[in-house]
Structures are given as C-alpha cells and as structure tokens.
Amino acid sequence: xxxxxxxxxxxxxxxxxxxxxxxxxxxxxxxxxxxxxxxxxxxxxxxxxxxxxxxxxxxxxxxxxxxxxxxxxxxxxxxxxxxxxxxxxxxxxxxxxxxxxxxxxxxxxxxxxxxxxxxxxxxxxxxxxxxxxxxxxxxxxxxxxxxxxxxxxxxxxxxxxxxxxxxxxxxxxxxxxxxxxxxxxxxxxxxxxxxxxxxxxxxxxxxxxxxxxxxxxxxxxxxxxxxxxxxxxxxxxxxxxxxxxxxxxxxxxxxxxxxxxxxxxxxxxxxxxxxxxxxxxxxxxxxxxxxxxxxxxxxxxxxxxxxxxxxxxxxxxxxxxxxxxxxxxxxxxxxxxxxxxxxxxxxxxxxxxxxxxxxxxxxxxxxxxxxxxxxxxxxxxxxxxxxxxxxxxxxxxxxxxxxxxxxxxxxxxxxxxxxxxxxxxxxxxxxxxxxxxxxxxxxxxxxxxxxxxxxxxxxxxxxxxxxxxx
Length: 470
Fold this sequence. Notes:
The chain is an alpha+beta fold.
C-alpha cells in the first residue's frame, strides 16, 4: 500500500514547503471565500497565488540574525550569476570558418545554422541558441577536440539532454578490452558530451561495447534525464542510461548523417576511409531532391554491434579465411558511400526518406563580387522515416544535421509480455449418484401406514383425489 501522508510530506519545493503544507494552505484560502461559487474555476489561480505569496515564519535564534538577515537570492539573480560566470570563461572570439590550417580547431556558427533550421520548423530561441554556440566553443577550448558540432536534443521524461558531438584524436593510453572498438574507431570514433542545462556541466559519455548496441536495438526506453538511472527494459540492458544514451546517439548518427554525392571519395590506400574531394561542386536544389545525389557518410553498424568483424577463433582443422567468409555472408559490410536510394523503404512508403523544399524556390543572380553566380533562399529538408526527429537541411553551399526527439526508432517489433494461457472451459457437471457402499447408510423410508400416506395434498393439507384431476 502507498503511504499518501508520507509522500505529501516528503516532496518539497525550493522554498522548503512540502506538498502537504501547500494543499493545506490552498484549502484554507478556499475556506476564507466559502461563499464564492467560482472556487472550482479559479482553483489553479488559487494554487498559484498561494505558492507565490507564501511566507514561512521562523523565530530568530539570536539578535545577530535579526540585525544581519541572510540575503536570499531570487531565481533570476541565480540565473544571471550563472550566465555571467559561464560567459566569462569563454574565449573572446569565435572559431573562424573553414578553410583552416590542419592544426586549427573548428566549430560551425550555430547562430547562422539556426536560421535555416527555423525555416523547417526547428527552433530553440535566440537565447538558447547563443548559449549553445558558446558551449561548443567552451568545449573546444577546454578539451582536446579538434572539431565540434551541435548534435541535437534527446527529450526525456523529467529532463532532456542537449548533445554536442566532437572529434577527439585517438591518443587515449588506456586501450579498451575486446570486443570493444578502440577510441577513435568504430562505434567509439566520435565523442559526445551531454548536459541537462546548457550553462551547466557537460558530461562526456563513456565508450560502448557491441553488447550495448545489440541490446539497444531490442529496447524501447524513454530517457529519464539522469545518466545513472536504471534502464528498465527486457531483455535486460547491460548498463545504465548513459550507456543506452550513447548507443542510441551512435545508431542515429551512423544512419542519418549524409552528404551530397561526390563530396567525399574513398581513400586510395584504404577503402574504408574517406576524404574530401577537391573537385566537388554543390548541386542545385532541384538536383538535391533526388535521393541518388545523397550518400551515407558513416559505415553501417553490423549485426555484431561493431563496424568491423573480430578475427574468428578457429580450430586446427578449420580454415580462417573460410570462416571469415561465412561471417561476412551472414553479416555483410556495406559500401560506405552508398546512396540513399539503396536504403530499404519504410513500411507503406516507396523510400526511407521524405524530401521537402521550404521557402522561396526562385533562383536569383548575384551582383558585385559574386557576379555570375546564383543563389536561392529555398531550404531543402530530408527526414528519415526510421528515426523520427532527425533532419538534414541544405541551402546553397551549406548542409547540416540535427536530431530532436526521444531517441526511439520507428517500426520494429514492440515488446509484449508473454500472456498466460487461456482459462479452460468448465466441464459439464455430472449428476450426483449415491455411494454404492456408504459408511453411514441413510435409513430406509418407512412404509405408508394409512390410505392417505403418499397422496398429494393441497395447501390446506386436504388429500387431492386423483379422480378430480381427471
């Protein structure tokens, strides 16, 4: 049973007032105006009035407390102090845009990107966007990351996660045990920082194992906003929420980060690596509406939960290459720069991506120093159906990615607990038969001792003659 009195007294607000005291004051306020007929309609207003006008009297312990009262800061005061402290730690100038020297660090201008995202319906407000831009610069200067970008926002039940993605050199001296993939490689190639408050502390998410990826594929869990919270799913998840969060972020990134075709090319020495093509020319908006002109950037995550297969352990009579070929046949490695048109179509749709153009599609000729070039204010948006909340935008020579959602993949098989067997139908009741050899036999009926014994009688006890019935 639930102890309601304990729950009401245990929950307190920032002023120390319990829910029990708050409800008592609300009822007291209603009783003062008992003649009013609008108490039900004004109930929420009364609760808000009581919360804002609450005064908790405390008897002073000494003369010093009376003459030197403690200064109480309001919420806006605390917010201002946090903002000032946050902004003072940042560099005075932003990171310049590319092209940059090889040793330079890079962070995109989120203030400019937010204008394009706002066109497609994604907007966090000028204040939040400005603080996010400063938070990226802060991480870029306080960590050894060479580039960062705003990844998006994972919504939660009580709190949400702001996410920043970064590329960190793979120089970690502590190697991860197998079957983990090393830092800077595979599913641990990118580093992610999360925070519930943009001005708060940014936590770096830990490395994940293939088991985290495989279990995350079978789970549907809405984040709580607490990194060390338990993930209540079945089959059980081998970790806490920060591991599940990292696994979902990696799955979304490797499925939805795309680039225009021919922007990247395969490395001549290693086909698994890519590099920027110097001969690339950004296609127009009409050309980018075709899924064939977009390719995936990251390699596919295997069913094994890794980017590459581990070397198989074979016996003395087995051929290592033959065993590896069987593994690759069952769990193949796809081409890295594969076009979106090759993605499996979503159920009920012809493709896995929705393409839509927002804004004015008119092409304008540019003047002055850019004379001879053209521009458009249209913003192209591509949204994958498998990951609701992911969006890729493109405008002129710019494209960017963002995710705002619960981190749950669409489709798939939901988890239904195994139901118990149906209740069996009750059998036909059998007529009771006398016991053939009872221990206590019933006495035999007495023989009738008169002519009226055994005859039918009416309500008054008179014998009914059979002739009357005839």
